[in-house]
């Protein structure tokens, strides 16, 4: 079901009218998704948003569990609103992977695919007879993205691993929150999403190697904990050289001063004044010329020992001002600062509106639904929402026909509950 963004005079804006006519940068790339929930499906979603033809394999009995996660529409017995975006631009094909003929359909689809994305526990595809060795024997150029908690090797490979565990093992949870409280979780499944993006990057690099360097297909092995670990900036060399273990520091960014969340009269704002020229402008803006002109504070290594003094000066200036008053001064001084947005703020913010980051569509029954726009923005081959997350098995017959199955054979597969 193709969709067209609806015009709206508030926060949800229609997309560029000529975008739908342009092929995406991944047009012609065929992706087979063998995954559920978050990491694998998010990786395939990303590829589909930029033009890849994504076929999502689902269990005929209920499909991807994400269909029932978070808020449903209708609220009783409906489908997840998250599904509309996580499965957009994908074709849903239901296949019973325990049936031999079902496996054969997957092998035929993989033979035509450029990329297979899967996030089962290591070894499951091999047990099903759908491992990379089998699929690549028929398709040597195949790129398989394998997302799992701990990777395809190592002593932990067979353990169940979700994003929350990866965020803990990868180091993110240890440095998040306040030192006198247990580590909190971030309010989204950030570990899964970071791993998914690593999978997309790996897939595109593998395609480039095959198409430009004359290489063959390969496996992109993404461990969720390693994707999180890859984002941990300087914690490894700091420990290796100095034995320093970075700890939780609340809202501040340790060793980079000033960068913190500060209270105003009516809420809090975030200020990033940690580059040398910005620091000086910030101190002038808050009427602390003494600190602006202090030679000892001219560079970050001099500011770190005086973090408390600097944060105290900023907090004292903000204490008598509203968020709007403070931001007016800081923006005029060219100091990075901003309010902490809720989703309600996003729907009315002029920057979100100007960039068309929230778009309104019609769902299957005519209900208005707002989705995040596609990111990043490409000037010549932008991504787009071609259709919303499909009904379970919506494209099964269409895809089987494309493989050469006739109507009688397809009816037989349905009757045997293979599809």
UniProtKB/TrEMBL annotation:
Q: Is Calcium a UniProt keyword of this protein? A: no
Q: Record's superkingdom?
A: Bacteria
* Keywords, ordered alphabetically: Transferase
Biased-composition ranges, Polar residues, are 1-10
Q: What is its EC number?
A: 2.8.3.16
SUPFAM superfamilies per UniProt: CoA-transferase family III (CaiB/BaiF)
Q: Which GO terms describe its molecular function?
A: formyl-CoA transferase activity
Question: Where do the segments described as Disordered lie?
Answer: 1-24
Q: Does the keyword Transferase apply?
A: yes
Question: What protein is this chain from?
Answer: Formyl-CoA transferase
The protein's organism comes out as: Paraburkholderia terricola
